[in-house]
Amino acid sequence: MRPISPIVLALAAALSGGTVARAGTVGLAAPLSGFAGALGAQMRDGARVAADGAGTPLVIADTACSAEGGASAARTLVEAGVSVVTGFLCTEAIDAALPVLTAAGIAVITPGVRADALTDRRTRTGNLVWRLAPRADAEAKAAAALLLDRWRDVNFAIADDGTIYGRDLAESLRLAAEMEGHKPVFFDTFRPQLDNQIGLVGRLRKAGATHVFVGGDRNDIAILGRDAAKLGLDLTIAGGEALLAAEGDVELAPGTLMVGPARPRASAELAAAFAARGIVPEGYVLSSHAAVEIALAVAGDGRADLGKWRTRLEGPVFDTAAGRVAFDENGDRKGSPYRLLVWNGEEFVSAD
Asked: What is the mean pLDDT of the segment spanning 89-95?
């Protein structure tokens, strides 16, 4: 894909004195073009509502979800004089942007990048980065924490669809179970995107499994639930947050469990603000709003080094549209956003 130069959508509004933004200005770096444009638009919508609600300018630059775009967006935001940057979705873009922003003393708060290395290497690199998004390894840890105790006295199985995501999730759960002396009765890979999963149902029945965790997508899990019911196998099925994908050709079976992030709900006032702009608060809208809220709380103190930014960001607890937020010493959000949810036929609700 040919690199796309970043576009600054709100630069004129953000600038004072012709060249430099006023103290405390916040920037947003989001993929507003290319394959992730729809997700970038969610970030933009949430960030704009937060900034407008605070009566402050917002400088927006397009990363195009590429290394070239990330570096160029960073340079644009440095020149605009921002103190804090929010946003980013793609690892390539933030990796290219961080050296530029860190050199300028600009902190980054990302609601989108999950790669473990982003914060794991902060001590070595000194990068000024904090994140609202869960770490890449958080989902697997949550699956073990939320399911293993509940399934200790049942015959449970683990299956995956052979993808990197599905295999890593399933393997992590298997290892966690075996470390606790709780070996699954069945562990296998199934062929995804079939019209039926009758073969998998048969193997689960033969193994005596009553519960199964599936590292796979929503449609395959829905087909498994349908076929288990059709063949008379009473099977409790659980999956990861891939179940949040749009409904496929087959509906999920009521009772399907999901290890997924709790979805914060906008307050009545904020919901009205979104509705007035025709914004549906889904995807990255609320988390982007929250990132800007945090940025605005600390941006007025201006650019700084890692030590000073740690004092500003790793001490307080921030009340945001996405709930109360605090950061740990690595720059990750404290606590797990994952909960055990159950499909009631219309939506996922708390399994507790």
From this structure: 97
- pLDDT score of 248: 81
* Pair 184, 233 in one domain: yes
**Residue 121, amino acid:** R
Nearest one of 298, 259, 7 to 134, comparing CA atoms: 259
pLDDT value for 9: 35
Same domain membership, residue 161 and residue 132: no
Q: What gap in Å lies between CA 44 and CA 47, rounded to an integer?
A: 5
Choose among 77, 91, 68: nearest CA to 9: 77
CB atoms within 10 A of CB 154: 11
- pLDDT tens column, 175-222: 999 999 999 999 999 999 999 999 999 999 999 999 999 999 999 999
Q: What is the pLDDT of residue 42?
A: 97
Give me the number of domains the chain comprises.
2
Residues 283 and 298 both lie in one domain: yes
Residue 216 lies in a domain: yes
Same domain, 123 and 209: no
What's the whole-model pTM score?
0.86
Question: Buried b vs exposed e over 34-61: b needs ≥16 C-beta within 10 Å?
Answer: bebeebbbbbbbbbbbbbebeebbbbbb
Question: What 3-state class would DSSP assign to 239?
Answer: strand
User: Are residues 88 and 166 located together in one domain of the fold?
Assistant: no
Q: Which amino acid is at 166?
A: G
Distance, CA of 99 to chain centre: 23
Residues 220 and 346 in one domain: yes
Whether 94 and 153 share a structural domain = no
Structural domain range at position 127: 11-136+265-325
pLDDT digit string, tens, across residues 144-175: 999 999 999 999 999 999 999 999 999 999 99
Q: What is the pLDDT of residue 23?
A: 56
